[in-house]
Amino acid sequence: MRADARLRRPRSGSTLFRNRARRKCLNIPCGPKPFLFRSGVLSESSPILVFGHLCPDTDSVISALAAAELLNGRGIPAEAAMPGPLTPESAFVLRRFSLPCPPRVDSAAGRRVALVDFSNAGQGPADLREADIAAVFDHHRCDGDIASRAPELWLAPVACCATLLAGLFRFYDVVLPPGLAGGMLCAILSDTSLFKSSAATPQDLRAAEDLARRAGVADIAALGADLLTAKADISGCTMRELVLRDFKDFTMNGRIVGVGQLEMPDITPVEPLKGGLLAACAELAAEGRHSVMLAVTDLGREGSLILAASPRPDLFELAFGRPLHGGEAWIAGMISRKSDMVRPLRKAFESLGRNPD
Amino acid sequence: MRADARLRRPRSGSTLFRNRARRKCLNIPCGPKPFLFRSGVLSESSPILVFGHLCPDTDSVISALAAAELLNGRGIPAEAAMPGPLTPESAFVLRRFSLPCPPRVDSAAGRRVALVDFSNAGQGPADLREADIAAVFDHHRCDGDIASRAPELWLAPVACCATLLAGLFRFYDVVLPPGLAGGMLCAILSDTSLFKSSAATPQDLRAAEDLARRAGVADIAALGADLLTAKADISGCTMRELVLRDFKDFTMNGRIVGVGQLEMPDITPVEPLKGGLLAACAELAAEGRHSVMLAVTDLGREGSLILAASPRPDLFELAFGRPLHGGEAWIAGMISRKSDMVRPLRKAFESLGRNPD
């Protein structure tokens, strides 16, 4: 019991003493024993490895940095990591706001970890189930049994994990450095496709305004344009790298379905690559997935060209209301992977029932 | 798809238009189609019934009112309810801040619900598993499979659910009425035993300060004293009612263990009732529980008298480091049910392994 009580004491004494002083100001009667504030149940061990999903997008990389900063600010030692290579967009963001690149991590077994931007075991390192899940910060629906093992869980229906984290910096009264605020602003602009995505919520917009102020970004639209240019950079990449750039596996009615997305102001440069991208989708599908789809999103025309490798193209027609011709279809209005792609696709897969297909 | 898009539009148009205007101020390029903000995935159906655990304490009653207010403020119709009778403390709080008493609810089957202050199916109405869980706001460890079904989950390691909700009013930019702020302040004072509990965190204290300001409460200590007086009112109650006043069932290593708590500035008036209270514990244990414990907490002496009806009193000795004599023991320093009672008791039960006992 005594040892436990000592462990609960925050590592940095400053919060403790500031709060004892505050309590005195409130005229709350003090007990005879020293008043122990806990900075959270996580303080019981350390350090925590914080990372997002495989094929990390900007939100995953930046939210890992942000969550590590938040945990450290609460007196809980944590360090950011990254289970995949940096995309050109994320590289631009780190450079633009002088942020450190989180080191690569490919294994979680035996580590104490915090997850950002995902809570689905299939989207993390293969040995994630052997990790001790200390916290989850996510903006997706809770999927599987990983999240429920965490003593703290923040799963909010917003478009970007950085929006949730921005709110938590206020909740925990932790100072948000300007550079990190700039990175988080970029994560929101990226995840909402500059607020064109139907997944965007008023909370995302409010967080973006606040983060821009903290980061000293006067022209959000100009930053968004630079971000899009970086995101659309496909030079020097293999077809497989392009499909995997922003790629996630989803379990839909027992089948693994991979969904990648490439966002561009104008998708004309991708037209000649369609055959190669479709072949890369088929290659990834052959590696143990039921289907693989790449959405090449045209932010100017506000829609997506989908390329799908699947033994059941009819499911894609059922989900999106248009038949595939040679594995491809143009879907107007489709921008958000979460709302416009995964949700209807999941429903279509549910129509399969439990039968093998 | 079109019908879905319409559903996503917030019910009150004001947020939508305010945000479109904001977006223009940000100079973010507008698409050709109207810009749809979603107020959250919950807006897809209505209304949501919001309630806390069985034998509701002040935090459960007030957090249900607060979460319903928050959801309504987000454009998601919700109404507070209460799965048990009002305690004298909660009655005092509702009266003191002119808050409505949530109606009684004993069934959740087929309803869309939001849970506050618990996420363990065993602590809710018997048919909770037949409900559609829309959201969970809790400050306890996620227990069981109920919470992971919710599209939004807020599980924070703080001492009081009202602390979490106070943060969410800021996150969602929803106005917090002064009366409700006063009620939430009381919930925090109650759950932290006027900040004497080891479960209290800096977030709880900060929320209390802010809520006091909003509620116009100048003297928090005086309010706390009134609250304690109401909490300690045991007049006209049966022994069973006293054990059940603030009572929760926990599943510990497969066994159901009920833990009740009575908090008083001075427990002298309870001394003559010990035999009756122990008999009520035994009666509740005989109704399908492995063990039942009542902690009578003396906030002046900062400790608890425990009364336990159990076939394995040795587990209580293992948990709390003192033997039970005639089913009772005084444990100095024990105030928080969550940290000081349930946590060590759970560990002691885990030592049983899977063997029947």
Q: Report the end-to-end length of chain A measured between terminal Cα atoms.
A: 56 Å
Q: Briefly, what CATH class of the largest domain in chain A?
A: Alpha Beta
The biggest beta sheet of chain A reads: 5 strands, parallel
Helix-strand category of chain A: alpha/beta
Q: Major sheet of chain A: order of its strands?
A: 2-1-3-4-5
Query: Superfamily at the CATH H level of the largest domain in chain A?
Result: inorganic pyrophosphatase (n-terminal core)
Integer-rounded radius of gyration of chain A? 22 Å
Oligomer: homodimer
In round numbers, the mean pLDDT of chain A is 86
Largest protein interface, residues of each chain:
A-B, 64 and 64 residues
Order of helices and strands of chain A: HHEHEHEEEHHHHHEEHEEHEH
Q: What's the CATH topology name of the largest domain in chain A?
A: inorganic pyrophosphatase (n-terminal core)
Put simply, the count of helices of chain A is 12
Summarize it:
2 copies of one chain form a homodimer. Chain A is built from 12 helices and 10 strands.
Protein model, in words:
Two copies of one chain form a homodimer. With 357 residues, the first copy, chain A, is α/β, with parallel strands linked by helices. Chain A folds into three domains: 2-38, no CATH class; 43-230, inorganic pyrophosphatase (n-terminal core); 239-350, Diaminopimelate Epimerase, Chain A, domain 1 (Roll), CATH 3.10.310. Helix content of chain A is 38%, strand content 17%. Chain A has twelve helices and ten strands. Chain A has helices at residues 2-8, 13-25, 58-73, 88-96, 161-171, 178-191, 202-215, 220-231, 239-244, 274-285, 313-320, 337-350; strands at 48-51, 78-80, 112-116, 132-138, 152-155, 247-252, 255-264, 291-298, 303-309, 328-332. In chain A, the strands form two sheets. A five-stranded parallel β-sheet of chain A has the order 2-1-3-4-5. In chain A, strands 6-7-8-9-10 form a five-stranded mixed β-sheet. In chain A, a hairpin with a 2-residue loop joins strand 6 and strand 7. Chain A is globular. The first copy, chain A, starts with a helix and ends in a 7-residue tail after the last helix. The model of chain A is unreliable at 1-22 and 29-44 (pLDDT under 50). At the A-B interface, helix 2, strand 5, helix 5, helix 7 and helix 8 of A face helix 2, strand 5, helix 5, helix 7 and helix 8 of B. Strand 5 (152-155) of chain A pairs antiparallel with strand 5 of chain B.
